[in-house]
Fold this protein.
Amino acid sequence: MAKQEHLNDDEPVEIESPIAEAPEDERDVEIASLRDEIAALKDRMLRFAAEADNTKKRLEREKAEAALYAATNFAKDLLSVTDNMGRALAAVSPEERAAGDQALDNLLAGVELTERELLNTFQRHGIRRLETVGQKFDPNMQQALFEVPTTDYPPGTVVQEMQSGFAIGDRCLRPAMVGVAKAP
């Protein structure tokens, strides 16, 4: 079936439609082909959208991890400060504390307060001290320095901590140095 159109009020121009002139079975084949192409394009578009969404989620996860672990090196450097504060507090015997020297009491209170504030700051930034004594030995978070023959704990249990360990998020910042029980 031809269609007539006029250009600039001149003579009519005939435009032929290939679908209108094609037999019905060819039109059905062409329509089916177009539908298949539309379905393939929809599938491709959905795959691209899913890939873009996955990329966005991955980037958000990487950004969150970068923010959490950004302070790792700085935190490692501060761990020695925590250790030294603990050593300073342990250097004063209970008898010396009980003696009641006001200057010593004030100094110890200041060191304890500073240590507590440092640990609270660590906690606010996702850094936590590892609990080790009485726990099963974990080579990912602890380093065994020696074995202790004992019947008080099952073999493979941490019985003594020589140096505290710390973790940031779920990563080990510094392993705890521990003594592990073994069968006598």
Observations:
- The chain has three domains: 2-67, 71-125, 129-184.
